[in-house]
Amino acid sequence: MSLDRPVSPNPYDLLPAVPSFTVTSNDVTDGAPLKDDQVAAKGNTSPQLSWSGAPEGTRSYVVTCFDPDAPTPSGFWHWLLVDIPADVTSLDTGAASGALPGNAFHVRNDGGEHGFMGAAPPEGDQVHRYFYVVHAVKEDSLGVDASASPAVVSFNLAFKTLGRAIIHGTYQH
After folding, report:
1. Among 76, 78, 11, which residue's Cα sits nearest to residue 38?
2. Can you give the pTM of this predicted structure?
3. Are 68 and 8 in contact (CB under 8 A)?
């Protein structure tokens, strides 16, 4: 079986435009291969993220990690951390497996877990991109619970996002 297919577009280019702000990481270098820590079979650890310059009116954040290059029509969601309080502007390395700030919670990723799942593309597949996105939200709560699907989280974000900060890493076996 061949997995040859075109490279998917940047999914965030296909959404309504919103202001951008800054996200940095000690663990992810934009456009560069991920460290072993962020690979499912090697470390499976959520990366450190820091953000600044969110739009005025931000009342909470959602952090996601999405792979548009998975061999599925819907990509693959690796991380969805919802309802992060507005006064939180960073997450430490491994934060996904520790105590979460305020009323923040995880929505089930496409691997079936409430938490972070590292990069895990099929052997021999094309380079995969992992978009780590901090979404500035105009409400205290996104209005979903932990049983929501990633698609429902994304749908709600389409209407409640004030801004996005994006950094992406890559991985290939």
Report:
1. 78
2. 0.97
3. yes
Strand-pair category, 49-52 with 60-67: unpaired
Q: Kindly state the tokens that stand for 79.
A: 């991380």
Q: What is the largest CA-CA distance in the chain?
A: 50
Task: At 52, list the tokens.
Answer: 């600044």
Which residues partner with 134 through β-bridges?
Answer: 63, 165
Per residue in 60-88, pLDDT tens? 999 999 999 999 999 999 999 999 999 99
3-state helix, strand, coil in the chain (%, to 5): 10, 30, 55
For the beta sheet containing 60-67, the strands, ordered from the edge strand earlier in sequence to the opposite edge, are 105-106, 76-85, 60-67, 128-137, 161-171
**CA of 7: how far to CAs of 4, 126, 127, in Å?**
9, 8, 9
**CA-to-CA distance for 86 and 144, rounded, in angstroms?**
17
pLDDT in tens, 84-139: 999 999 999 999 999 999 999 999 999 999 999 999 999 999 999 999 999 999 99
The residues, any chain, with a CB within 8 Å of residue 80's CB and separated by 6 or more, are 62, 63, 64, 106, 107, 108, 109, 150, 153
Spatial contact of 34 and 171, defined as CB atoms under 8 Å apart: yes
Q: How many CA atoms lie within 13 A of 62 on its CB side?
A: 32
